[in-house]
Amino acid sequence: MQKNTIIRTVSGIAFLGLMLAGLLIDKWLYAVLMGFILVCMLIEFYRMTMGDNFRISQSLSIAAGLTFFVLMFLASAYEAVTMKYVALTFLPMVVVMVNSLYTPDKTGFSKFSHLYTGLVYIAVPIALSNLIVFRGGSFCGLLMLSFFIIIWSSDVGAYCFGMALGQKFGKKLFPSISPKKSWIGFWGGMLCAILGAVILKLTGMLDYPMVHCIALAIVMDVAGVYGDLFESQWKRQYELKDSGSIIPGHGGMLDRFDSALFAIPAGALYLVVFGLL
Q1: Verdict on whether the full-model pTM lies above 0.85
Q2: Domain-terminating residue out of 105, 140, 175
Q3: Same domain, 217 and 174
Q4: 44, pLDDT greater than 90
Q5: Which residue in 160, 137, 132 sits closest to 148, CA to CA?
Q6: pLDDT attached to residue 240
Q7: Pair 195, 220 in one domain
Q8: What are phi and psi of 172, to 5 degrees?
């Protein structure tokens, strides 16, 4: 037990260090980090839903997702690369669809739908994150870091309140999908997300009116919970505890970013609607 705790702590600190480096130091470091995370999540999702079936098509889909991210990165970072080049992502997608015609065994053809689900679920949010970290070609990861701090605050709050009170008192949040999650954990997570946003406002990392910082935290917290439950539903369907094992003691990349895949787009959309982004 103690050994597992040490492993979780060390790997967690190392992972946090990599995230901070990617968001704060250099745009190319950010691109490599997020591209790596995207590829890992797609691999985990396709292994979970498709196993060893249609490996070529899986590889082509991963290439399509990575191509989308790279083109969005270049279009956001360099004025010479306009958004019209992002349309080139359609080419590897067409290859994925055409390739399905040449698979000799059609008995598991329905699994091809998971290829497109993975791209919409994982590749699109990660690729669009480039629009958050770039302003007129200038790289700044502070807003994205603030998003992650809100998400992490929510996760820590939900875990602490859930373990301390949720397992003994109150109702379960969604027992058919995630039996351990409780309403107490949900409200604890939201409280910590709001506190995190307030601290970010007071320290100047979030440069928005306080009411918007609090509303942003609430929106992202709710979206993050749904993101967590959505991934849990996939794992329950395929009887898996973790999506992978790339982070010792923490599971897979998809386990670590399930909340973010819903929360970050929701947060960005909130800011866009109110003219703050």
Answers
A1: yes
A2: 140
A3: yes
A4: yes
A5: 132
A6: 87
A7: yes
A8: -75, 150
The angle formed by the CA atoms of residues 11, 218 and 12, to the nearest 5 degrees, is: 5
User: Between the CA of residue 23 and those of 20, 127, 130, what are the distances in Å?
Assistant: 5, 15, 11
CA distance 230 to 117: 12
Under 8 Å between Cβ of 122 and 261 = yes
**Has residue 274 got a pLDDT over 90?**
yes
Burial degree of 197 (CB within 10 A; 0-12, 13-18, 19+):
buried
Q: Is the pLDDT of residue 1 over 80?
A: no
Of the candidates 107, 125, 140, which is a domain's last residue? 140
- Residue count of the chain, please give it: 277
**Tokens (6 digits) for 71:** 């083109």
Which tokens hold the place of 274? 């109110």
- Other CB atoms closer than 10 Å to residue 241's CB: what's the count? 8
185 and 274 within one domain: yes
Cβ–Cβ < 8 Å for 183, 166 = yes
Show the 3-state SS of the chain. CHHHHHHHHHHHHHHHHHHHHHHHCCHHHHHHHHHHHHHHHHHHHHHHHHCCCCHHHHHHHHHHHHHHHHHHHHHHHCCCCCHHHHHHHHHHHHHHHHHHHCCCCCCCHHHHHHHHHHHHHHHHHHHHCHHHHEECCEECCHHHHHHHHHHHHHHHHHHHHHHHHHCCCCCEEECCCEEEEEHHHHHHHHHHHHHHHHHHHHCCCCCCCHHHHHHHHHHHHHHHHHHHHHHHHHHHHCCCCCCCCCECCCECHHHHHHHHHHHHHHHHHHHHHCCCC
Cβ atoms of residues 250 and 237 within 8 Å: no
What total of structural domains would you count in the chain? 2
Domain identity same for 9 and 132: yes
135 and 224 both lie in a single domain: no
